[in-house]
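Give me the fold.
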Amino acid sequence: MPDINSDPRQEHPNAGVVRQLYSAFAQGDLKTARDCFADDAVWHVPGRSPLAGDHRGWEEIGDYLRKLVELGRGTLRAELTDVLANDQYAVALQHTTARRGSKGLDVTACQVVRIRDGRILEMQGYYSDQYGIDDFFS
């Protein structure tokens, strides 16, 4: 059982892989982002936009990330606000903004991340405004 009096500044190592992914994405470093994922990873994207669905393996996940950037026309920012982690999971709390023509995006979200051997195995997003996400990326 974990010590509830332990130093809260000492983050679980699984939080580090999530932070690394967000930092790499913010810098446009897809090579480092790729290193965050297990070979058999899957990213579940909810909704009805063209980006929705299950993205399996790095090729599909990398394509998904490139499409986010492309559709966000360089304005997409996914700011990581906090990470909670244990031995199997991490939860990434984020604030995402973007602008494309007359469309704007401003949502909070959480990504539930399953981690195995220090690499992301599965991601599932939950958004404060799913309809807004669908509209922006359609």
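The chain has one domain: 13-136.
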